[in-house]
Protein: Pyridoxine 5'-phosphate synthase
Organism: Aquirufa antheringensis
Amino acid sequence: MTRLSVNINKIATLRNSRGGNNPDLIQVALDCERFGAQGITVHPRPDERHIRYADVYALKKAVKTEFNIEGNPLEASFVELVLAVKPEQVTLVPDALGQITSNHGWDTIQHQELLKRLIAPFKEAGIRTSIFVDPVLEMVEAAATTGTDRIELYTEPYANDFPTNPTQAVAAYRKAAFRAHQLGLGINAGHDLSLENLAFFQANVNPLDEVSIGHALICDALYYGLENTIQLYRRQLK
Ligand SMILES: CC(=O)[C@@H](O)[C@H](O)COP(=O)(O)O
Ligand SMILES: NCC(=O)COP(=O)(O)O
C-alpha cells in the first residue's frame, strides 16, 4: 500500500503572509492526520519562506504519523535540525538557495562519495534516509551505493507530460522503480502529483512506498475542503 504524506509547506506560506498564526500550522498538521494523512512532510528552506525551523521542533512534538523532513544536507543548519528532531525520515534534496522550488534530483554518480558522507550521520541516528533523484537508471544505480534506504523519484516531468501522453510520461518511472526495487531501495515519489495524475502513476510504478504531496493538494482543498481532499487523494491510492 502506498502511503500519503501531506506536505504542509503552503499552509506555512499562507500563515506567514500576514505575520500571525492563522492558519495554525500545528493544528492543520493534526487535522491532516485525523483526516487520513499517513505522514506529514515539511521542507524548511534556509530563507524560511514558509516552514520555519521553529515549526519543525513544534511539529515533532505533535505529529503522530510519520514525520518527513526535506532539505539540502549541504546546509549545516539543516543537518543540525534533523539530528536534533530525529524524524522518521529525512529526504535529501539538492536545492540551491534561490530556487523557487525543487526542480532536479541529485547527480548520484558525481556526488556518490559526498552522499555517502552526508547520509551516514542520519542513519547512525536511526533516521530513514531518502534521496531525491530523477528517473534515470544510472542515477538510481549509483544511489544504491550511497547507503540510502530509499529514493524519492522527482515527478514534475511526469506531471508535465501526463496530460498529452500518460504512458510515455510514466515509462521512465516504471523502469526506475523496477531497478530500484531490484537493488533493495525503498521508493518514494513527489513533486506536482495531483488528483489528475496520481492514480495512473501508482498503477504503473511499483512498488511505491510513499508519495508526498503538497501544492496541488492544498490548492484542491480550497475548493473541496481539506478533509474531503485528503480522502480523495487516499482513494487514488487504493
Ligand atoms: C522536494 C519537493 O519536490 C517538494 O517537496 C518541495 O518541498 C517543494 O518545495 P516548495 O513547497 O518550497 O515548492
Ligand atoms: N517531495 C514532494 C513534496 O513533498 C511535495 O511536492 P509538491 O506536491 O508540493 O509539488
In short: The radius of gyration is 17 Å. The mean pLDDT is 98. Residues 3-236 form a domain with the TIM Barrel fold (CATH 3.20.20.70). Residues 135 and 224 are 32 Å apart (CA to CA).
